[in-house]
Amino acid sequence: MIEFHRVTKAYNGVKALDDVSFTVRPGTVTGFLGPNGAGKSTAMRILAGLTRPTSGSATLLGRPYTELARPGFEVGTLLDAGAQHPGRTGREVLVLGAMMLGLPRSRVGEVLELVGLTGKEAGRAVGGYSLGMRQRLGIGHALLGRPRALILDEPANGLDPQGIQWMRSLLRGLAGSGCAVLLSSHLLHEVEQVADHIVMIGAGRVLAQGTLDELGRGRTLEQTFLDLTSRTDRSPA
Fold it and tell me: Which residue of 38, 93, 130, 162 lies most exposed, with the fewest beta carbons within 10 A?
């Protein structure tokens, strides 16, 4: 389970996150939606142990990331698809990840097949990858240890329609196996297709959360989202 409990993060007195609380339960996909500057990336970084909250707590499987005994086997993260050495091949990136986790090399082949990177593509330097290929590689790296929770920041960026369909099926399959998936995205239509639960954030605050039916009430997710964010834009600073 992934849980934010009254998380606030302030920089020089300005709140990037303001009393944020929500839960991602095992076996579900939660879509984390918000415009640029809403606080999504800050929340993801806090969850991954890269930024400390000013107050409140963010936990994975009941503990902060930094207190997990074997984080690679418990949580998979993709926060920046471009954060791989451009001179290494895709296979080398995964082999190094597998070595760090003490996994056999056979797991690398399984993951390459899972994310749809062919032998030829896996042998190319990452610097020559398209953004979509980097996304596939990053998702593969996150899945090496068969984690029970998954944190993905804008994983559909750069994917073509076929790739988006693949990712949708992959996430639904992972949730079906009991994984708790937190998916940050600005692609509202894609979130509608895959998420069980939605959390909408604006100006660092949770504006609404619930299932698609609970949030929509006869309207599309986009209409609800635009209405809530426009109210935030009109609110005083």
Answer: 162
